[in-house]
Amino acid sequence: MLFYSYFKTLVGKEVTVELKNDLAIAGTLHSVDQYLNIKLYNIRVINEQLYPHMKSVRNCFIRGSVVRYLQLPPNSVDVELLHDATRREARGS
Amino acid sequence: MNLDDRVPPPGAALVEDLDKRLLVQLRDGRKLIGTLRSFDQFANLVLEGAVERIVVGNLYAEDPLGLYVVRGENVVLLGDIDGADDPPAVLQKVSIQDIRQAQRAEKEQEKIKKSMKARMDFLDFE
């Protein structure tokens, strides 16, 4: 559950989620679960003029299986910490 | 593992959206609007008073459907539109007949664009 744990540390941060249908949504990460389903608050759709129906959506739940990328704020990624956590997880402790 | 580390079941975040009016984006591009009455860990959904919102350009129409059960794998996104300015002011409501016609026109446009592009590709233009 490394990525679940990792994404949990990002709650409250501003992220951009790119979906497999090319829709990209920026917003504040509100919650994440084991399937990496994501809840974003105060969303802003990238290229909004192409998706006018999204204008009335403020908060949304995104199914984990449709996510292609997550863009994170660079200063919130501690590579060393992730590296260690990866080894710990692989050892199963 | 102590109590605070207990992991909530997947999809539990949807509890907050129960009984709210939601916009459900499906994988085939369709948009359903309905009141969320039930869900499970796969994001299978029960929507009461569901309508399909068909959007073409800045026109839209709503097709009443009734009670819908959506299989989770088809769900892309659930948007909370309860209390928001819905439908968005930029969209103009038309009849279902009109939106179907607009859909056909759009499809025709895309077909033309595609065939033009195919010809261009053949000529090896950028």
UniProtKB/TrEMBL annotation, chain A:
Keywords linked to the UniProt accession: mRNA processing, mRNA splicing, Nucleus, Ribonucleoprotein, RNA-binding, Spliceosome
GO molecular-function term, one example from the UniProt record: RNA binding
Superkingdom of origin: Eukaryota
Species of provenance: Coccomyxa viridis
GO (cellular component) term, any one: U6 snRNP
Name of the protein in question: Sm-like protein LSM2
Family of the protein in this entry: Belongs to the snRNP Sm proteins family.
Gene: LSM2
CDD domains for this protein: LSm2 (cd01725)
Task performed by this protein: Component of LSM protein complexes, which are involved in RNA processing.
Glycoprotein as UniProt keyword: no
Annotated Sm domain residues: 2-76
Entries under PANTHER family matching the protein: SNRNP CORE PROTEIN FAMILY MEMBER, U6 SNRNA-ASSOCIATED SM-LIKE PROTEIN LSM2
TrEMBL record, chain B:
Domain Sm intervals: 9-84
Keywords, in A-Z order: Cytoplasm, mRNA processing, Ribonucleoprotein, RNA-binding
TM annotation in the entry: none
Short name of one Pfam family: LSM
Top-rank lineage group of the source organism: Eukaryota
Compartment annotation: Cytoplasm; Cytoplasm, P-body
Function: Component of the cytoplasmic LSM1-LSM7 complex which is involved in mRNA degradation.
Family: Belongs to the snRNP Sm proteins family.
Subunit structure: Component of the heptameric LSM1-LSM7 complex that forms a seven-membered ring structure with a donut shape.
Protein name: U6 snRNA-associated Sm-like protein LSm1
Encoding gene, per UniProt annotation: g3740
